[in-house]
């Protein structure tokens, strides 16, 4: 009965989405206040009904109602409650319900918090949200209904893929979707602006917090995914340039570009049509990500067995949305006139460079991800594009981006003095040299590129701090003045410093763990010792354990350094009965200088076990730095001008130190 | 500088960057495209030794031999087989009769030296490349079960 209520709620939500997607649009065009007024209640009600459907499905999972086909195929009575709940989105149908739930959540949030928006703009934005929602609801109801019953119901479910039974992965899809779908708001604003033919600083100020929120969620989602790959897959890697990873990374890249270009629209009124285009591209890439993962065209853990009708539907919907919005863009974009002029060397110029590099990077990732699909469709040849391609194309684009990242924020708007900005970054340059030298000394040489990479990372992180200190006039003015400046400085300034500094830490983690990782693969018998990176790993044997829904073989490693005990590592291999499957649980110990990582392999039949040991310097800085970036995003989100609809205030930034600013060469 | 010339400047800068990116992409494609072959295709064409490729099919029953860290097995599409040698820990889902994709290169003797073995799917899932390879060999009943 509850499943039928859920199903019915989805149908009602579809009808509401159709109302929300059409009448307010019509009303806004005609100036009909009653129709415009429909948008908000429709958005709220749509959210309510989808929430009912989602809870109905979740209830089916919690009580293990195996008369629902979806539950029977993906759940099991013996699963812990957390994984019964996360099982709701651990499969195709449920994950699509989560998708529309989040979409309607954003719609309701616009309806509730969008009080300061002009009524027509709000009506149009909500209408676009409604149309997207209608498309996905149609998809769910016609190709992937999660509420289909089976007769007779089986006594027991088939269980959730054990690889997905993990806390990191339980929360990975919701965050990823909050990010993906969050960009739909920027998309809807962009389409509404194209319909109105008007983009102004106020528009950018409304778009920016939504984009920032979506960016924070997507960053968390991507980071959780890579963290899961690192500790759960047991391959020792954290990023494989797998098409599914790329699918989430492409919207991240273009979303990051969007985040930055929206600032230019807000502050300077330039780059309007580019910003609108980026908003369209970002959400299109989010939808493409959904298509890639959900259509079954990729081989990956994420790709569920799927019938082709779904792929065709999503592809058609994708073409409709992307093609339609780009056509609208082509027709209306010339109407968006830029107002602010700027010289190439300026804050705007820096942000343009950021955008060019980020979009080029997104394009190379796109090409590497899609090329095998195109080639397969056109010639039937099967190829794969692996990490070497991405390292060769993506890396070189990131170097200038990161090098420029410390400089850009030092440049004033309109026109700037590059030499002056660089002079103020002396401390960052010194830090980069020192870090590079220390690395060179510690690593006793080592790859030159990696040493330069460590220097570059220090340059960004210290550069972000220098920029902040510069604004506070730290050490140049009395402490009291710095303090009062610190209190008056907008939070977005702190947010930026945190986000940029965090990226430097991420880079350090990536470079150090890639360049100086050590690895050993061997057969070990109980009592044997293997040494790695100055650590002694002693294998003490294994014992059997019973988990809640699996049986495990747990190995014991004592790790010591120069005779002093450092850690005890307990890697496991687990055997799940339903579905029958083995998983490897790596044992990881964080130390200040790097991670110790042990994997237990198969027994060799004579008492020994295959074991794989790693030392990965600084690797957890990747996630630590990501966390700091997200905190930076949240701090920026809490900025005063996003909380209240006050007109933008002049920035406090001292524009004084650029007296000799040369006019740009004509 | 007029508005038009300035815009031209940005367009040129954009083109230069795109050109650089395109050059990077093309040179990287040249070296890093990894082709997938089924055992039948391997038999039909000469895959040069040391050329990085992927092969895929089913792990032949009773073909897995372990000695220490090295595992030898045969990959079959039921028409032809390829002998594979891999040193390292095999993925959790590697077992006889299951679909597998291996990346590596042939040595001069025609033995496939795998540097990576992929079998990271759930027990009902068949990698699309493998399903295709089996279908071409005429043995895959694609409409059976939930695979597609």
- Our Rg estimate of chain B from Cα atoms comes to 22 Å
* Share of β-strand residues of chain A: 5-15%
Helix content of chain B: 25-40%
Order of helices and strands of chain B: HEHEEEEEEH
Gyration radius of chain A, to the nearest Å? Answer: 27 Å
How is this structure best described in words?
The complex is a heterodimer of chains A (666) and B (148). Chain A is 62% helix and 12% strand. Chain A folds into 4 domains: 1-165, Four Helix Bundle (Hemerythrin (Met), subunit A); 166-332 and 344-405, no CATH class; 425-516 and 624-643, no CATH class; 518-617. Chain A starts with a helix and ends in a 23-residue tail after the last helix. Chain A is an alpha+beta fold and 666 residues long. Mean pLDDT of chain A is 87; it is low at 299-305 and 646-666. In chain A, strands 3, 4, 5, 6, 7 and 8 form a 6-stranded antiparallel β-sheet that branches. Chain A has a 4-stranded antiparallel β-sheet with strand order 2-11-10-9, with helices on one face. Chain A has helices at residues 2-30, 33-36, 39-62, 69-74, 81-86, 92-113, 119-143, 167-196, 201-232, 243-268, 272-294, 308-332, 347-379, 387-407, 418-424, 426-442, 448-472, 479-488, 491-515, 621-637, 640-643, and strands at residues 382-385, 518-524, 529-532, 535-546, 551-561, 564-569, 572-576, 581-585, 587-591, 594-603, 609-617. In chain A, helix 7 (119-143) packs across helix 8, helix 8 (167-196) packs across helix 11 (272-294) and helix 14 (387-407) runs parallel beside helix 17 (448-472). With 148 residues, chain B is an alpha+beta fold. Chain B has 2 domains: 1-33; 35-136, Nucleic acid-binding proteins (OB fold (Dihydrolipoamide Acetyltransferase, E2P), Beta Barrel). Chain B is built from 3 helices and 7 strands, in the order H-E-H-E-E-E-E-E-E-H. Chain B has helices at 3-32, 39-44, 128-136, and strands at residues 33-37, 53-59, 65-67, 70-76, 81-87, 99-106, 112-118. Chain B has a 5-stranded mixed β-barrel. The relative contact order of chain B is 0.16. Residues 142-148 of chain B have low confidence and may be disordered. The interface between A and B is large, with 62 and 49 residues. Strand 1 of chain A pairs antiparallel with strand 1 (33-37) of chain B.
